[in-house]
Amino acid sequence: MTTTDSPTGRRPRIRGRLRAGAAARPAVAYAFWAAMVGTTVPTPLYPLYQQEFGFSPLMVTVIFAVYALGVVAGLLALGRLSDEIGRRPVIAVALLLAAGAAALFLAADGLPWILTARVLSGFSAALVTGGATAALLDLAPPQGRARAQSVAIVANMGGLACGTLLAGVLAQWAGAPLRLPWVVTLALVAAALLALLVVPETVAEPTGFRPRLQALRVPAEIRPAFLRAALTAGSGFAVLGVLTAVTGLFLGTVLHLTNHALTGLVVFTAFACTALGQFAARALPPRRALPAACAGLVLAAALVATALLAETVAPLLAGAAVVGLATGVAVGDGLGVINGGTPPQRRGEAVSTFFAILYTMLSVPVIGVGLLIQAAGLRTAGVVFSALVALLAVGVAAGLPRAGRPERPGR
Question: Is pTM beyond 0.70 here?
Answer without folding.
Answer: yes
